[in-house]
């Protein structure tokens, strides 16, 4: 949260008898984006979510599991990201781009490619969105997102083409 992102508050840290470390955070009220009806995923919600991703990028924080189950939508139309178990606090560009790619795929499957790409470009900028093109292929995506893409035939091709068209990016060598 020091980076400006709206994330759960850390309440405490502890250690188990076996030496494992655990973190306790505040509960986030709302509904997982994966469970929301599409009409609840408004331009305001998308802007809030991409705004969180922008703050993570500025802080060089890669979440590394940005599935829609890890995004909570509050009654105020705000998006809050949870579950930072696998996060990297000094991420390289590839990991930061992978976070964006994961959300591009997941959101496109949920609300459509056009709305997803437009909202991402509006908040993150075309260069950031274009940089995800090498990640928009099955082997570059985590298993959960890969499976989602497989169930939406042609999604990755449509998404890649739309990103190229809207950002002016050139073909990417995969």
Question: What does this molecule look like?
Answer:
With 174 residues, this protein is an alpha+beta fold. Helices cover 43% and strands 11% of the residues. A hairpin with a 5-residue loop joins strand 1 (10-15) and strand 2 (21-25). Helix 1 (43-58) crosses helix 3 (113-124) and helix 3 packs across helix 6. The longest helix has 19 residues, at 93-111.
| Spatial arrangement of strands, main beta sheet | 3-4-5
Q: Roughly how much helix do the residues carry, as a percent range?
A: 40-55%
Q: What's the tally of helices?
A: 6
Shape: globular
The average pLDDT is: 88
Note poorly predicted spans.
Answer: none
- How far apart the termini lie comes to 35 Å
- Biggest beta-sheet profile: 3 strands, antiparallel
Order of secondary-structure elements: EEEHEEHHHHH
Q: What is the β-strand count?
A: 5
Q: Structural class, please?
A: alpha+beta
Give me the Rg, rounded.
16 Å
